[in-house]
Amino acid sequence: MTLIERMTAAKASQDYQGLIDLVPYASFLGLTAAMAGDELITTMCFADHLIGNPALPALHGGTLGALLESAAIFELLWRAETAVLPKTITLTVDYLRSGAPVDTHARSIVTRQGRRITNVRMEAWQADRNAPVATAHAIFLVMRS
Amino acid sequence: MPDEPDEPDQRDERAARKLKMTLAFSRVVPHNQALGMRLIDITATEVVIELPYDPKLVGNPDTGTLHGGAITALLDGCSGAAVFTALAEPVPIATLDLRIDYLKPAEPGKSVIGKATCYKMTRNVAFTRAVAYQDDPENVIAHSVGTFMLSTKLGKP
């Protein structure tokens, strides 16, 4: 089966985690996914190899960017009727606080879905959802066949 | 960054800092080590870092292309290193924002090189540009601009 076929199968069986496990990089980051109400929450489980600054300690900025980008891609895959792998065109991350060495959660909102272009906003938080560690927006090329 | 020739003591200081950064880059930063990133070169104006190809960093297992997140981590890492290199004295820095344009997917099986420069430094903020490429520096796969806050306490802007 191709990736898209396996993703379609995971969606059909409501297997959020199965969708994530198809992507090697998502496993490397330690991502998990779960529905909370009608929100798809992607979580990056803390591990030592995610640290960028051992003196603080703080998460590597690249891991937060990667979590936010992944959360948006999973959201698009999850919501889409036909699974198409979105291509990231631009990603802009605002770093608001240093990331503590704990689990980090992310969620995404599709702000506009066009025929080719989809705009998404993302936010990541740790203990306090009202104090995000990073926010981002991304533009994806999603070509439906 | 000044373009006039360095005084010998500046050269020595820069060489010492380069050695220190080379050692610190992957050994002291766990995520850089986990990604397998290697510091290739530091000059007064540029930092060059290699991200070797690794199957665990793949985003699409059908094609074997690297996940955009790995490129994000590479460009974030070399942009921050470019700010450190450009600083007259080492001070703590924190990323304010980073924008990445993905121009095309990385070719599977090949390293990705990140090259960053800090093109403007003010009292509080540093501005960076970076590109990611594979064989040819002119054939860019991703481009980024970033801003960094200087002299942060505990890394907080």
Describe the protein.
- The complex is a heterodimer of chains A (145) and B (157).
- Chain A is an alpha+beta fold and 145 residues long.
- In chain A, 28% of the residues lie in helices and 37% in strands.
- Chain A has a 6-stranded antiparallel sheet. Chain A has a two-stranded antiparallel ribbon with strand order 3-4.
- In chain A, a hairpin with a 4-residue loop joins β3 and β4 (58-59).
- The longest helix of chain A is centred in the middle third of the chain and has 19 residues, at 61-79.
- The radius of gyration of chain A is 15 Å and the shape is globular.
- The model of chain A has no long low-confidence stretch (mean pLDDT 91).
- With 157 residues, chain B is α+β, with helices and mostly antiparallel strands.
- Chain B is 29% helix and 36% strand.
- Chain B is built from 3 helices and 8 strands.
- Chain B has helices at 8-27, 30-35, 68-86; strands spanning 38-42, 46-51, 58-60, 65-66, 93-102, 112-121, 125-133, 140-150.
- In chain B, the strands form 2 sheets. A 6-stranded antiparallel sheet of chain B has the order 1-2-6-7-8-5. A two-stranded antiparallel ribbon of chain B has the order 3-4.
- The radius of gyration of chain B is 16 Å and the shape is globular.
- Classes of the chains: A alpha+beta (145), B alpha+beta (157).
- At the A-B interface, α3, β3, β4, α4 and β5 of A face α2, β3, α3 and β5 of B.
- β5 of chain A pairs antiparallel with β5 (93-102) of chain B.
Short description, anyone?
Chain A is an alpha+beta fold and 145 residues long. Chain A is built from four helices and eight strands; from the N terminus they run αααββββαββββ.
